[in-house]
Fold each of these.
Amino acid sequence: MTRTAFVIGATGQVGRAAVRALAEDGWDVRAASRRGESDANWPDGVRTVVLDREDIAALETALGDGCDVLVDMVAYHAEHARQLTSLAGRIGSAVVISSGAVYEDDQGRSFDTQSGPDGFPHYPLPIPESYRTVTAGEATYGTRKVALEQGLLAAGESLPTTLVRAGAIHGTYNLRPRELFFIKRAVDKRPVRVLAHNGESRFHPVHTANLAELIRLAARTPGSRVLNAGDPQAPTVAEIGTAIDAVLGHSCETVLVEGPAPAENVGDSPWGIAHPVVYDMTAAERELGYRAVTSYQDSLAETVAWTVDRLGDRDWTEAFPEMYRTYGSHGDMFDYAAEDRWLAGRSG
Ligand SMILES: NC(=O)c1ccc[n+]([C@@H]2O[C@H](COP(=O)([O-])OP(=O)(O)OC[C@H]3O[C@@H](n4cnc5c(N)ncnc54)[C@H](OP(=O)(O)O)[C@@H]3O)[C@@H](O)[C@H]2O)c1
């Protein structure tokens, strides 16, 4: 009998890839989102569903007789765990996207403390899933994800759930593409860039196709577990810049700075972290036989093409408003004047 999958958040960057992977693997997929959109790359037979998952009655109705696996891209807190566990009788198993932001180092540092002095966590390299996490709560994105995880793991066999702790997600349909930091500079033919931390920052990326593969395998083999999700390599920020330049045929001078950003809006980037964040992938390999289906380098040209196309001639804040909301509060990523002032002061 055909196995059924119900995907919440189906038209986001991860959802699009996951729906495709599941449908191509023979699942009968219902693809739910508030706008109920479809994707040209989905095989025939995928059914779209208009659903706001915050509306529990609507979710119950949409689920109908239920599904063999429910895949949730947009679960963020304990209430979402309660919502899913209340439907356990109708859901065979679940795969839910969590985040690497849950980890806390042995000094109590996490992504939540990164703006303070020496606040960036010093994680082990790589971080295993067994490593400690922030305390569950309502305070931050990370604490809420931990609460979500704990709520779902507590369901045990009544709703076997794989929590996927994703790294820095990249791919097409990314509304907050970190890659834009280098892409826009290349499009603007910016001749120079400044990278703090000697350009050696590493924030483990994960391509949407690799996440989709992990989701596909977890759907096949239900279990109550937590798994990291990262690409086969974790390139440095300098390597990412070089790779994006190569895709776009751009060349520029990279000025490397020891230590943190030397001035406001100078040297920082979406990957510009003080200590490496690399996720251990051996559990996914061991438990599910997971093998990555692509790498950062191999997937980059498609991601860059999609991002350049969406940017078009528009101001980036208009083309990527979600990205502006996420990163805009931390300063202007494209403050070329500040960069030029700092470079002039340095050489003078
Ligand atoms: N970005 C990263 O680097 C990163 C890193 C680690 C973990 N994560 C996790 O990744 C997940 C986000 O996945 P994504 O990047 O694929 O998201 P996304 O691209 O922002 O897409 C979100 C999807 O969910 C739908 N959606 C939003 N709210 C909904 C609602 N209330 N009910 C039903 N559908 C809804 C959206 O379509 P409509 O607008 O039509 O509803 C869309 O299909 C989150 O769990 C996040 O914590 C992200």
Amino acid sequence: MRLIRVFEERLHVEFATGEIPGFVHLYAGEEAIATGICLLLDERDRITSTHRGHGHCLAKGCDVHGMMGEIYGRKNGLCAGKGGSMHIADLSKGMLGANGIVGGGPPLACGAALAAKKLGTGGVAVSFVGDGGANQGTFLESLNLASIWSLPCVFVIENNGYAEATSCKYAGACHDFADRADGFNMPGVTVDGHDFFAVYEAATEGIQRARRGGGPSLIECKVNRYYGHYEGDTQSYRAPNEVERIRETSDCIRRFVSQVISAKLLTPSELEKVDREVAGLIDDAVSVAKSAPRPLGADLLTDVYISY
Ligand SMILES: Cc1ncc(C[n+]2csc(CCOP(=O)(O)OP(=O)(O)O)c2C)c(N)n1
Ligand SMILES: [Mg+2]
């Protein structure tokens, strides 16, 4: 969670310098979801992500330097600098891709889950989708397909209250998105997406069910994003002090720290060590990315087709 937070906070600063090309959508505030879920996954498992994908990539084990390089559009990036923030993918880590198409991930997750089922790998596919994405036909079709084929899939709705500037209270014809699971004959649960342990417990149940052949499930995580929809968003649709209040009362890292300290699971010095390591790693990733070469014109014609 700290790694994702610092990665995103640093990008917020660096993007403002104009050195990062394209669009960047930051995941800060939502870290407990990617972390609480991906901690339960291994090399058999696949995830699909969204346009707000950095947290999912990091939690599934993508290389920090490779991600930073990709976001800077440099050759050391995970996709050789040709994808950028919204197209980061690393098949070697089971990370099937961020996605510029809202609702683009769930059908891919069905495919990955079908492959796991047919090959008997024991793998599961987790599809992260936003509240806006959960209103897309692709999402609902995927729930249906996953259910009739009893696919090892977990659909995770990251309900951060907005799709761009549109409130989910306006755009979603339901109070809890998890209620939609009923219509597809699968379990659905709503959890506090700021609470690492609540996410972890819900995900444990869904992932175990999928692994033992029990079919798909749906987890809705209610959460907040700390920055705009994209870097540069003026956020005029948000209430004054909305984000400050959320940071004060619901921050997932602060909550995690107080939970693990009071339960004596970790010590303050162990947590400080994590913070120091993360700070050094991000500093290094940024400086390596800034000095890495950009792809050349000739690179445009490579990686277009792959051979099997
Ligand atoms: C099919 C499609 N429609 C519209 C867009 C434009 N768009 C990009 S992000 C976004 C909002 C997505 O909201 P949500 O799914 O809640 O994710 P969040 O940004 O809140 O994480 C929209 C409408 C798009 N990229 N793809
Ligand atoms: Mg949203």
Amino acid sequence: MLAYRHAFHAGNHADVLKHLVLTRVLRYMAEKDKPFTLIDTHAGAGGYSVEGRYAQKKGEYGEGIARLYDRKDLPAPLADYIDLVRAFNPDGQLRQYPGSPAIANLLLRETDRLRAYELHSTDHRILASYLDTRAQTQVRDTDGFAAIKAELPSPTRRAALLMDPSYEIKSDYGKVLAALREALERAPDTVVMVWYPQLQLLESTQLAARLKGSADAAAKKGWLHVRLTVAAPADRPDGKGLGMLGSGMFIANPPFTLHDELAECLPLLVEKLGQYDGANYVLEQKAA
Ligand SMILES: C[S@@+](CC[C@H](N)C(=O)[O-])C[C@H]1O[C@@H](n2cnc3c(N)ncnc32)[C@H](O)[C@@H]1O
């Protein structure tokens, strides 16, 4: 039984960072005529109402997408992502927020393949019905981590993988690391995107270094790591806190354009999404 429902968190600062990166990667991959495959191992329901009771309960989108949605002065990569969110809101008012498979549905071409995995039965049903008529698409209700073996190497050869678990179970940290290694072993040029929460928890603080070590050994085109910190660490004597301070994305085999695109957007994200004076970002990359 899975307790996590992304509907509570849709459109928060972590979704903004994740979906900005996803948008840039998919745009880049669609520049070449040759089709590619996107494997979304933890796909969620596909779309979320920010007016619904789930999103309203926590109001996280208010400190995320809502702070950017009406702005007209955004750097081009952010403006492109916001335009995609606008495409989900035909009357202009922010009512719906697209999840990763919905963004993929907009950006993938008819010849590109989409493989979406979602274990929660309700979210799986919603997603399967949403993508029902999309060509070249399969929506599965099986373990997304186990998908690596089934999906890679892909028949299209070109592939991107988004790994976006909830990390409510600590074993997810070890699983993303193992899945990154397995993906790069099976197809070393796969663009692997791993999202992670920035928490005051050893597993979280160590994850980026571990992912870098694995990508150093196996990624054909290096890696990029971006982290956006929006909230202050909890002031507890044990140095631990429960809340998410921010989040990060680790990308193996990133598009060569990604670093500069993110560098253009991150100062504004810190300014608009930061919840304290110390809000900051990290952007680092290593060529192969
Ligand atoms: C953070 S949410 C995904 C959000 C989505 N990627 C997006 O960007 O819109 C994580 C999802 O993974 C699902 N999930 C948890 N464990 C899973 C597993 N082993 N395989 C596939 N889905 C899983 C949860 O039910 C939840 O919907």
Amino acid sequence: MAKKAYNRKDKYYHKAKDEGFRSRAAYKLIQINQQFKLLKPGISAVDLGYAPGSWMQVISREIGSLGKLIGIDLESPKFTPEKNTEIITGDIREERTKQLLLMALSRKVDLIVSDMAPHLSGIKFQDHYNSYELAEQAFKICRIVLKETGNFVVKLFPGEELGQFKQNLKGSFKKIDTYIPDATRKSSTEVYLIARGFKLPQNQ
Ligand SMILES: C[S@@+](CC[C@H](N)C(=O)[O-])C[C@H]1O[C@@H](n2cnc3c(N)ncnc32)[C@H](O)[C@@H]1O
């Protein structure tokens, strides 16, 4: 029997179109936020791998005019950023991009989210490793610009590195949860780690 065709235009795709979001991914963050209440008026946040920009729409709306949001992506923006939003185009693995982020911030931030995903090679272990490398880079950014007690959301495709990565996070955050939003496609293996209560590194 023929396999059921992958339905790109599912209910979240249509909902995103109707509600004016740049992508259906918006609902993943909305559901993460419903569960963990991370977005509050006036907070500052960094969105790693923001393009096409639906998480930025959600964050910008929730943090309001007193909040500040910086998005970083390899891609250049295809939209006009909201008033409380700034964009950096660059590779998060490069020192130059980290420097641009530091220059854009006047103080440490309350929240870092990473929905970064590598370009898939189709080679499973390679894709898992690349996803883990991006998550490691996002964690590195936390150690540079996340406030004490701040929160971190990071996407990962589980492979053998997941356990070790979670273990590393445990040393730096009070609580780690693994969450799969309903909006994640059933065909995807992605999970989100929600790390809350950042503990500053000892030497800071
Ligand atoms: C799944 S998309 C993010 C979708 C986004 N959360 C939204 O709501 O529209 C993943 C993004 O990660 C970005 N990305 C991947 N590797 C990156 C890197 N090394 N540095 C910066 N961005 C990266 C990609 O360019 C891509 O736009």
